[in-house]
Amino acid sequence: MKNIYPDMKRLFEETGNRGRKLSYTPRQIIEEFGEYVKSLEESPIELVTEYKGGKNPGTKTERFSRPPKVTDFVVRWLGKSMSWWANIEQSKRNGNEFLNIKDKITQYCYDCKMDGAIVGIYNANIIARDLGLQEKVAVEKRPPDPIENMTLEEVNAEIERLGMKPKGIDETD
Fold first, then answer.
1. I need a surface site. Which of 49, 70, 137, 165 has the fewest CB within 10 A?
2. Is there a domain that residue 2 lies in?
3. Per-residue pLDDT at 104
4. Domain range for 95
5. Is 120 left (phi over 0), alpha (psi -120 to 50) or beta?
6. Is the per-residue pLDDT at 1 higher than 50?
7. pLDDT tens digits for range 45-56
8. Domains in the chain: how many in total?
9. Does residue 151 belong to any structural domain of this protein?
10. Residue 40 forms part of a structural domain
11. How many helices (H) and strands (E) does the chain have?
12. CA proximity to 85, closest of 69, 96, 98, 104
């Protein structure tokens, strides 16, 4: 499991602190995020495909980098909750600095997922749903417009009702 989720011990680090929560400075969060991204790069997902028969039987191994995820970084790597992450900028001392770092980390994760989906590393539909980009189209059937379906008699009656003279129509018709 270490190859898929490196450094699992961080998930349970806070359980032995007897209720004392680890706190992070803005600088420490930046450093931890750098370590997190580095660990993802060092342990890519390997997909082994076996080819039987044909001209070139054998196996093919492909390596795919993992996209950094905010939830993964906060919950598993830092050992914090998402509510902590959502309210991190409410710190009295470093609120703006935390907000700036939070925005940059979120944007970095978003960009990595988007780039991976664009070049075909990740399933574009899943990434679009994850990033909230899924196109939502509502198709509604409306009743036909009564004006579009008027007969010639109805058109002439409407023209007469409005007191207009039709252009190009001779009065003798």
1. 137
2. no
3. 92
4. 8-131
5. left
6. no
7. 787 888 777 777
8. 1
9. no
10. yes
11. 6, 2
12. 98
